[in-house]
Amino acid sequence: MYLTIKETADYLSLPEELVKSLVLQKKIRSLYDGEEYLIYKNQFQSHLEQVEKYKMLYDEYLKEPIPEDIDVKDED
């Protein structure tokens, strides 16, 4: 499925100007049909899955208790 720049911006929750800039810099693959740029939607799927995975790993890291420091000496 192909999306226009506006639809891609909505899908990625990014400003339309940023998406257009990335397309023109060839950082997002696209096709030009003579009128507008068309962007293949599934090219973002692996990136979005990876972002979700890292969010989950980060949340797990934050939930992990802080281990006691072995080198702590009682000053009393």
TrEMBL record:
Please verify whether the record's keywords include DNA-binding.
Answer: yes
GO molecular function list: DNA binding
**What keywords were assigned to this record?**
DNA-binding
Q: Which InterPro entries match?
A: SinI_DNA-bd
NCBIfam families according to UniProt:
excise (TIGR01764)
Q: What is this protein called?
A: Excisionase family DNA-binding protein
Q: Which taxonomic lineage does the organism of this UniProt entry have?
A: Bacteria, Bacillati, Bacillota, Bacilli, Bacillales
